[in-house]
Design goal:
alpha+beta; about 450 residues; globular; 16 helices; Amidase signature (AS) enzymes; 17 strands
């Protein structure tokens, strides 16, 4: 599949039409998605109209934008004008249609991107597996017998399967980073509040963020700069190539790197740790460092997630409780019943934990940690090993991501280069506002041949 940057370059130069790329993406979805289950709605009429509008701008001799003609999809909690925003819930299939696009969708459209589809997710974003009672289970393109992660699983699977070059998801406790790791993609959870949340169905306001998925650093950064409204210094982002490594050297000069120890390494796959240690060497070496009380941070994140999610849904739970997926409903009800004192204590601990992280960032610019501790679990055996015991994957596969989004840090997930093998991913963690440094580090790793997307193949 051609890169997003490559598509934009061809459309802007008139080599190929945006309509041709849109038609190719629609055909790919129709051919592939039956085995994957990533797409909830194919927006072919809108897509072709948007593509024709881009082509008309090109024909008039004007620039349609840095994402000209790039097909993309969005997690089914972004408002799309004229459609109900389901947030992955069957009970919202007949909700009042959105009157306008989400701000992020509007920004991509203004940059010339073409919206092709809405994408599957865990109901109300409360999960890590994209097992959905109304819209089905999204399967991992690297092995359809395995989970693809969640809650932005459809967004990851659509890109990993080659149906789309870009997609948008959301991340509350790891919902971009987990599926990126399990499907071998690059995924960005930005600094909390850095990207527009207007028109995105909420879950936990304290943690919710949106971000892109892509197969390369350059494509991910192209999406990020478009969404953030801050183009990268040095010219047109659609012309960047992360593989030459040259444009990134100034941004990376003098950067210090550490490897998070303790909780973050205790249950990780040994091959993942070997890869992560190789990353540290490639980035100039990085000592093992400890972030204290990580287990408490994860527990506090659970408390705040349950409490805010429960409070958000309480009015609907009072009138339509039986319309929820039981697995979602029961957790929301439990959260709504939490004593307020627990939430207050979690908030206080959050401030303490953020201060400890800030102390680490006085010494380091980038911290490395596994994203998911293992390869994608099987759909028929949704478990993983933690502390030598088999535990449910749905509740535990985010154990390495939750403590970081708990304090709003930016995290860029990168895939180990593992052709013919199930994906593993690493989190590059930055200080608030440090996305540029994370992109520079990711580009250096990609240029060194240590990271990269591996095409799905039969690994069973």
């Amino acid at each position: 599949m051609m890169s997003a940057a490559g598509i934009a370059a061809e459309v802007r130069s008139g080599q190929r039409s945006a309509r041709a790329f849109a038609e190719a993406a629609i055909a790919a979805i129709r051919a592939k998605d039956g085995a994957i289950g990533a797409v909830t709605r194919l927006l072919d009429e809108r897509a072709l109209a948007e593509a024709d509008a881009v082509d008309a701008i090109v024909a008039a001799g004007r620039d349609p934008g840095p994402l000209a003609g790039v097909p993309y999809g969005v997690k089914d909690l972004f408002d799309v004008a004229g459609l109900p925003t389901t947030a992955g819930a069957g009970m919202r299939a007949d909700a009042t249609p959105a009157v306008a696009d989400a701000e992020a969708v509007a920004r991509l459209k203004a940059a010339g991107a073409v919206l092709i589809a809405t994408l599957n997710m865990d109901e109300y974003a409360y999960g890590f597996v994209t097992v959905n009672a109304a819209y089905g289970t999204t399967r991992n393109p690297h092995d359809p017998a395995r989970l693809c992660g969640g809650s932005s699983g459809g967004s990851a699977a659509a890109v990993a399967a080659g149906m789309l070059p870009l997609s948008l998801g959301s991340d509350t406790n790891g919902s971009i980073r987990i599926p990126a790791a399990l499907t071998g993609l690059y995924g960005l959870k930005p600094t909390h509040g850095a990207l527009p949340m207007a028109g995105v169905f909420p879950f936990v306001e304290s943690f919710d963020d949106i971000g892109p998925f892509a197969r390369s650093v350059a494509d991910l950064e192209l999406a990020w700069t478009t969404l953030s409204g801050h183009p990268r210094e040095g010219g047109d982002p659609s012309s960047l190539s992360a593989h030459d490594g040259l444009g990134w050297a100034p941004a990376f000069a003098g950067v210090t790197v550490g490897r998070l120890d303790g909780w973050f390494r205790a249950d990780a796959d040994p091959e993942l740790l070997d890869g992560l240690d190789g990353f540290a060497d490639a980035l100039g070496g990085g000592p093992l460092v400890e972030l204290p009380e990580v287990a408490r941070a994860r527990s506090a994140a659970f408390v705040m997630t349950a409490a805010e999610g429960g409070a958000l849904h309480l009015p609907t739970l009072r009138t339509r409780a039986m319309d929820y997926d039981p697995a979602t409903r029961d957790r929301l009800l439990a959260g709504a019943l939490l004593p307020a004192a627990h939430y207050v204590r979690a908030q206080r601990f959050r401030s303490w934990f953020a201060a400890r992280a800030a102390e680490l960032f006085e010494r380091f610019d980038v911290l490395l940690a596994p994203a998911a501790p293992c390869v994608a679990p099987l759909i028929d055996d949704q478990t993983m090993i933690v502390g030598g015991e088999k535990v449910p994957a749905r509740a535990n596969i985010g154990l390495l991501t939750q403590p970081l989004s708990f304090i709003g840090l930016p995290v860029l997930t990168v895939p180990l280069l593992r052709p013919g093998r199930l994906p593993l991913g690493v989190q590059l963690v930055g200080k608030p506002g440090g996305e540029a440094t994370l992109f520079a580090a990711a580009a250096r790793l990609e240029a060194a041949g240590l990271t990269g997307f591996s095409e799905p193949c039969d690994v069973r």
